[in-house]
Write a structure and sequence with these properties.
This protein is α/β, with parallel strands linked by helices. The chain is built from 7 helices and 5 strands, in the order E-H-E-H-E-H-E-E-H-H-H-H. Helix 2 runs parallel beside helix 3 (about 60-70) and helix 5 packs antiparallel against helix 6.
Length: about 180
């Protein structure tokens, strides 16, 4: 480990699961763990690059932790890592990725690497990718309603806007890298 290694905060109230994820990641990242919402908020700091956040935790659920992270305006990517199947309530959450348990070490590594690459993108492209991840999570389930259709339209509009602000080759290259 070097001080230049990306910092990953793993948050899960199941300490065995959080420790397993940390074990999977410790050779590639500076990994920190928190076993609940309050301890996550104590552990989060500007040097954290990626947060893997359980959604359903006693005391303070992951949704609230995510909201507080965003309120602090920390420049980190957040992946929900949860057993909760996505419903339309995730539309307003503001996560960067949504993984449904069970997951493999490869799933987590790939997600972290993708989120680290996204950190290098401008805010507009990051927001487009965030919305795209939300839509992708919703499309994995049986959720179909007006909110999903509205989100789908917004994602398409933002894609067109992103393409128009970037040269077509740059836009396609950015997505190939992700």
């Amino acid at each position: 480990m070097t001080e230049d290694d990306p910092v990953v905060l793993v948050v899960d109230d199941d300490s065995d699961l959080a420790d397993t994820y940390a074990l999977w990641l410790e050779s590639d990242y500076d990994v920190r763990t928190a076993y609940g919402g309050e301890s996550a908020l104590e552990a989060i700091s500007p040097e954290v690059d990626v947060v893997l956040l359980d959604r359903r935790m006693p005391g303070m659920p992951g949704d609230e932790v995510l909201e507080r992270i965003r309120e602090r305006d920390l420049d980190c990517r957040v992946s929900m890592l949860t057993a909760v199947e996505p419903e339309t309530d995730i539309i307003e959450m503001g996560f960067d990725e949504y993984l449904v348990k069970p997951v493999t070490a490869d799933d987590i590594h790939e997600t972290i690497e993708e989120l680290l690459m996204r950190s290098e993108l401008d805010d507009e492209l990051q927001e487009f990718l965030r919305l795209s991840a939300t839509l992708a999570a919703l499309e994995t389930g049986d959720v179909e309603d007006e909110k999903v259709e509205t989100l789908r339209a917004e994602v398409e509009a933002r894609r067109e806007a992103a393409e128009s602000t970037l040269d077509g080759m740059e836009f396609e290259q950015a997505f190939r890298e992700i």
